[in-house]
Design brief:
By secondary structure, this protein is an alpha/beta fold. The chain is about 35% helix and about 30% strand. Bound molecules: iron/sulfur cluster (SF4) (2 copies).
Length: about 280
């Protein structure tokens, strides 16, 4: 079973939920697809690390063969090619590696050269295989790294996908294969606003989902009001706790430290399993 954990913004508790959910499973694979700022590994401190490069192909112009027809420039919808001083110039930073220019060049004047844009790091913590996607600074898209991270899932284990925050194409890529989505949201007006962006995405993609309302305080819970009004499934509400915040800030895994939190996450996992079984 694959569970994707999402949130409308960073800091809601997405990684907290992902890490703790993976830890209460008998066997789990934790996939950190938040490739711009992966931080799940800070909690796991995984051992026996292996690394694998993620590369994309970029066009390289062979000026001896190019006759200056500019068909490649007209074709590129990302404006990653320009015809400057009689030559085709490639802007690597905005190329999406679609291979289109390579395929349409009538003179076969375009070759493709690999470029490393990041890496996938794999290690182990107890019953959890910890897979972390890491994008190099300045790269345009983390999607190729996310694709490589997702290949590391295991059908015999619970796969927990820690998605990037928001609702961009990287999030779409991360949840595509998920059996169930969990949206982590805060109970405030701001939390509701951020929730709605992700809610729109999961409903558009027709994904079954539920909500964890995190950092609940007794005086305000507009997320619960919204969910009740729209019959949205709340899987769990986690009260705001100074102790929990302290554990998290120290890089500790809450279910390893607190029986109460462990029971909560075991319960969350059981609820998700029964939702998936239908
Ligand atoms: S399509 Fe090929 S031949 Fe035409 S400008 Fe581009 S690289 Fe040169
Ligand atoms: S590979 Fe695609 S995105 Fe990159 S320059 Fe060629 S057409 Fe443009």
């Amino acid at each position: 079973m694959k569970i994707a954990i999402l949130s409308g913004k960073g800091g809601t508790g997405k990684t907290f939920a992902s890490v703790n959910l993976a830890c209460v499973a008998q066997k789990a694979v934790y996939l950190d697809c938040d490739v711009e700022e992966p931080n799940g590994h800070l909690f796991f401190n995984p051992q026996n690390i292996t690394k694998q490069k993620t590369t994309v192909l970029l066009p390289e112009i062979n000026n001896d063969k190019c006759d200056g027809c500019r068909k490649c420039v007209d074709f590129c919808k990302f404006n990653a090619l320009a015809f400057v001083s009689g030559k085709v110039k490639v802007f690597d930073e905005i190329c999406h590696s679609c291979s289109g220019c390579f395929l349409i060049c009538p003179q076969k004047a375009i070759e493709e050269k690999p470029k490393q844009i990041g890496m996938v790091q794999t290690g182990y913590f107890n019953n959890v295989k910890v897979v972390t996607g890491i994008m190099n600074a300045g790269e345009a898209s983390g999607v190729p790294i996310i694709k490589d991270v997702l290949k590391m899932s295991d059908d015999d284990a619970l796969t927990v996908i820690d998605c990037p925050p928001g609702s961009a194409c990287t999030v779409m890529e991360s949840i595509e294969s998920a059996d169930f989505c969990v949206i982590v949201a805060e109970p405030t007006v701001f939390g509701v606003h951020n929730f709605l962006m992700v809610y729109e995405l999961v409903t558009l993609l027709k994904k079954p989902f539920g909500v964890i309302v995190n950092k609940v305080e007794s005086f305000e819970n507009q997320m619960k009001e919204l969910c009740d009004k729209n019959q949205i499934n709340i899987i769990e509400q986690i009260p705001y706790s100074y102790e929990l915040a302290k554990l998290t800030s120290m890089g500790k895994i809450a279910v390893e430290e607190s029986e109460e939190i462990k029971k909560k996450f075991v319960n969350i996992l059981e609820k998700i399993k029964s939702e998936v079984k239908g």
